[in-house]
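Q: PKD domain containing protein, please. Structure only.
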Amino acid sequence: MIARTVLAAALAMTPVAHARVVTADPVDYTPHVLDGIVNALALVGDTVVVGGSFSEVADASRSRTYPRDNLFAFDLRTGRVKEAFAPGLDGPVHALAAGADGTVYVGGDFPTAKLRRLRLSDGGAVRGFSPRVSGGMVTALARRGAQLYVGGDFVRPRTALARLDAGTGAADPAFDIVAGAPRTPRVKVHAMAVSKDRLVVDGTFTTLDGLPRPQLGVIDTGSAKVADWHTDAYEPECMDVFPSYVRGLDLSPDGRYFAVVTTGGPAGPGKMCDTTARFETYAKGTGIDPTWVNHTGGDSLYSVAVTGKAVYVGGHQRWLDNPFGRDSAGHGAVEREGIGAIHPTTGKALGWNPGRERGIGVKAFLAHRDGLLVGSDTTRLGQEYHARIGMFPLP
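A: Structure for PKD domain containing protein:
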């Protein structure tokens, strides 16, 4: 086991570049989420904010238990639970984003106020932040300076996708991109990531502003227009129970490429079901192909983190490098239970293989300057007890 109690105080905001792959041995001081599932993570200074659907957390020694409804925070350096931060949300948290001045944005499926900005000092709402997001849940958040991008299946102030003033919550009238023609009854944005000039989004839509963008699109944030970037990779259908199958995505630290993970079930050749794929952000035109594709062979992936040295993927997969598998290990498959890492250039599985109890799967990654945080629904990570939250440090 690794017992690291001191981490650097000054932490860069994600995304961050790593010079090495993280170790396969989790730190010993992270707290435990005792029930439910972790859906989202954010880092505000030295404070980790954890959101999901749960009711209790415990300290690393399991000697003290704290009631926490769907949201809590702990110190990244020590693992100590922040006692003053206990807002008690009345619904599951699906998305988090770090805010300025010791605050965090919280999105989810709440009876009222689907999007909130809270102070970490006491859990109270920040005055003056009044977003009019309603008619559905918030499932994705990405902040870039004074702009906050929001995704979900809400219908106001825009359908499924909006850009807000990060201070007031007011909708930006210049950002009016319409996500349309969904493969499901409602339009829903599953995931998003933002760089200096691009916003990448995936979801159930097949058009953005009337342009064909099946389940995946790139937006020029400066012009607030859909970029000249189109792929048909996610046009084919997977299993009927997964009419829309894109899930997590993440941009590389330099913004040049991004990775997308999917569910979908076992499928035939040429389909992107249960895969990780790399795409080049600044490619142009129609018919853009993925740079590489890595198949699980029939198991879902939900979350991805790109650090430059690795593309970390999590779900309830059993294998990677498995294009010939059909809910089985095909020729060339390598075992990667619940969590794995892919080489960002070759698209092949790296040797990193800590293992994780599979369950539903990893729903949240957060790469930071000193390692990789992981949120899920199970209690075994790296062959140790780490209930629903854990961290792999850099060597």
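A: Brief note, in case it's useful. The domain at 32-393 is CATH 2.130.10.10 (Methylamine Dehydrogenase; Chain H).
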